[in-house]
Design goal:
This protein has helices at about 10-25, 30-35, 40-45, 50-75, 80-95, 100-105, 115-140, 150-170, 180-195. With about 200 residues, it is mainly α. The chain folds into 2 domains: about 1-50, Homeodomain-like (Arc Repressor Mutant, subunit A, Orthogonal Bundle); about 50-195, Tetracycline Repressor, domain 2, CATH 1.10.357. α1 (about 10-25) crosses α4, α5 runs antiparallel to α9 (about 180-195) and α7 crosses α8 (about 150-170). It starts with 7 loop residues before the first helix and ends with a helix.
């Protein structure tokens, strides 16, 4: 707001984010959120249908922050494979520093679990795949990406491969150094996507 006063919905959302980040989805209650926000329970339900609705709104906001960085990486003036490589790096950096977003994507039982985590993960996957498909289609339009590739299917496969690399980097289980994995991904994507 222009006068520096936070709108009631934003105050509740900020309180929900603090609670979910501190205690996780299961241990946070609507009472915790309203107490943290300094509002009545009715005010919470005026803006959110349920605790899950508030949780998904928190995930959406964090995802929006990540997507702004991802979109900047994918809209650079560079080859499509290099933009994809940058996206993987940006993803690892962002998810490495955002426990709640990472937990909702990978199902960490401490902060997120069950149906809310599955719904949050589905939102993230859909947004990232759409962004990848957009870049692939743009590459096709400019003639740098093979025209016969289906952008949606290609984005789905690239997403899964990229996530596998990011996940192994985040959980420390990769046998290949991250920069090496990014280089190989760049080479493979380049061979498969680019026109010959």
């Amino acid at each position: 707001m222009s006068d520096g006063v936070e709108a009631p919905r934003e105050r509740v959302l900020r309180a929900a984010e603090r609670q979910f980040r501190r205690f996780g989805y299961r241990r946070t209650t609507v009472d915790d959120i309203t107490r943290e926000a300094g509002v009545a329970k009715g005010s919470f339900y005026l803006h959110f249908a349920s605790k899950e609705d508030a949780y998904l709104a928190v995930v959406e906001e964090s995802l929006a922050r990540f997507l702004a960085r991802a979109e900047a990486a994918l809209r650079r003036q560079d080859s499509v494979p290099r933009r994809m490589r940058t996206l993987v790096r940006v993803t690892a950096e962002h998810y490495g520093g955002d426990d709640l977003l990472r937990a909702s994507m990978f199902g960490d039982g401490g902060l997120a679990e069950g149906d809310p985590a599955r719904r949050a993960a589905a939102i993230q996957r859909a947004r990232l795949r759409a962004l990848l498909a957009e870049v692939i289609a743009a590459g096709q339009a400019e003639g740098t990406v093979r025209a016969e590739l289906d952008p949606q299917a290609t984005a789905a496969v690239l997403f899964e491969v990229g996530w596998a690399i990011v996940l192994r980097e985040l959980d420390g289980t990769s046998d290949v150094p991250f920069e090496t994995a990014l280089g190989v991904l760049n080479d493979l994507v380049g061979l498969g996507l680019l026109t010959r």
